[in-house]
Design brief:
The chain is of the alpha+beta class. Helix content is 55%, strand content 17%. The chain has eleven helices and twelve strands. The protein has a five-stranded antiparallel β-sheet. It has a five-stranded mixed β-sheet with strand order 7-9-10-12-11, with helices on one face. A two-stranded antiparallel ribbon has the order 6-8. A hairpin with a 2-residue loop joins strand 4 and strand 5. Helix 1 packs antiparallel against helix 2.
Length: 433
């Protein structure tokens, strides 16, 4: 029972007792005793009224303040009641409410600013809940994972439950140990796993910083400089050597019984020309022209490349199976460069198979995608992350230029791509346009 209720019960009981006493005194005692009793009743009533104003009402006001705190209504204030002790409590309470209001407003502003900062950040942010499930992602992370704007389909899932290769890699990133992740689509990310406190509990979050463009620019700048320097030195040297060897060949041609010497000289000349062609191949990667984009029929481009490569594949008993969409996608591409890309990819698939296999070429309209798959030996995880690195090759005599050329051309076109061996054993090169 509230104190106010107890006060009114006490008041009723006390006045009832005094009224009964007054009744008996009126009939049994003198007039002066009756007057004294009535005066006592009046004084008691006045005292109870004053007691209510000074004690009970301030306590009721303070109780109302507690209700405001309970409801977290920090905008309301208590009125002074004219009692010094109670008014001091009211003043402290109102000051506390003002401070709580300012603190809440500050926190709301900070949270709003933080939300805006996270949403506008070019870095991907993935926030996890206490169970390790994805709680939310910012737009940059959604773009990295290939989600459309407003799509929050990853929420509630664990990183390992998604079909994104990056999410799988993120699940293995250790706390407070930044890690560089390279994917099969040539993309490079710097990933950091950290945590923050929310209501006393630690929540993990992941920062994903795209490094692809910066790394590619640095790589290109480096290998362009190296290739130009090597090409200059080698071509100047081989030109002088070839000229000297040609002179010797003409000289020994007039001398009898010098066939063995001429053969050796001819081999040396051919090796010089081979070296020049080798360096030219490197230089060609640097000198890739800007693509001249025109609307092209994707199915026709693919069919043309299939005819070009079919004879070489038939010699290895490799079957090229076409699964083209009924409505041919129209893309904006440089036909010459794009055909060179397709020839490189089909050639790599054939070399991966060796002999007796199948290459599948598929196109689709929604989304516009080209897929070249083969049932070759596949690519392991360690190799997958290095495929598009400059001069990396899995072939014994490979120069590491094929996929580098493919990467540069596709990026100049603005196409995205991936190369990986999937669970069904097929290695798929996908190009999204």
């Amino acid at each position: 029972m509230k104190l106010k209720g107890m006060f009114w019960i006490m008041t009723v009981l006390l006045l009832t007792i005094l009224a009964i006493t007054s009744y008996y005194v009126f009939y049994a005692s003198s007039f002066y005793i009756f007057l004294a009793v009535e005066t006592l009743i009046l004084v008691t009533a006045i005292y109870l009224f004053v007691f209510y104003r000074r004690i009970i009402k301030p306590l009721q006001v303070i109780g109302d303040g507690m209700d405001l705190l309970k409801e977290q209504d920090f905008s309301s204030r208590l009125r002074r009641v004219g009692q010094p002790e109670a008014d001091r409590i009211v003043d402290v309470f109102n000051k506390m409410m003002e401070q709580l209001k300012n603190e809440r407003l500050y926190m709301q502003e900070q949270n709003h600013f933080l939300d805006l900062l996270i949403n506008a950040s070019p870095m991907g942010v993935v926030i996890l809940d206490l169970d390790g499930n994805i709680r939310s992602t910012n737009p940059a992370a959604g773009k990295i994972f290939g989600l459309k704007d407003g799509d929050n389909s990853l929420a509630g899932k664990k990183l390992t439950e998604t079909d994104s290769p990056l999410a799988t890699e993120l699940s293995a990133v250790k706390k407070d140990r930044p890690q560089i992740i390279r994917l099969s689509n040539a993309n490079i990310y710097k990933c950091t796993h950290s945590s923050f406190l929310d209501r006393g509990f630690q929540h993990s979050f992941l920062l994903i910083e795209p490094l692809t463009e910066e790394v590619f620019k640095a790589e290109k700048k480096a290998y362009e400089k190296v290739i130009r320097m090597i090409a200059h030195e080698v071509n100047n040297t081989t030109a002088g050597i070839t000229s000297t060897l040609d002179t010797l060949l003409h000289t020994f041609a007039e001398i009898e019984q010098t066939e063995d010497i001429r053969d050796v000289l001819q081999v040396a000349v051919e090796r010089c020309y081979s070296m020049s062609r080798f360096i030219t191949n490197f230089a060609d990667v640097v000198r890739i022209p800007e693509p001249q984009l025109r609307e092209k029929d994707l199915n026709k481009l693919v069919s043309s490349c299939k005819l070009f490569m079919e004879h070489a594949c038939q010699n290895r008993n490799i079957q090229i199976i076409m699964e083209l969409s009924e409505v041919s996608p129209v893309i904006k591409a440089d036909a010459l460069l794009f055909e060179q890309v397709l020839v490189n990819i089909i050639k790599n698939s054939a070399e991966s198979i060796g002999n007796n296999g199948r290459i599948y070429i598929r196109t689709s309209v929604s989304p516009v995608c080209l897929e070249i798959a083969d049932n070759g030996k596949g690519i392991d995880r360690e190799t997958e992350t290095k495929l598009f690195s400059p001069f990396f090759s899995t072939k014994p005599n490979g120069q590491g230029l094929g996929l580098l050329f493919v990467r540069e051309v596709l990026m100049q076109h603005g196409f995205t791509f991936s190369l990986r061996t999937e669970a069904d054993g097929l290695t798929r090169f996908r190009i999204w346009m």
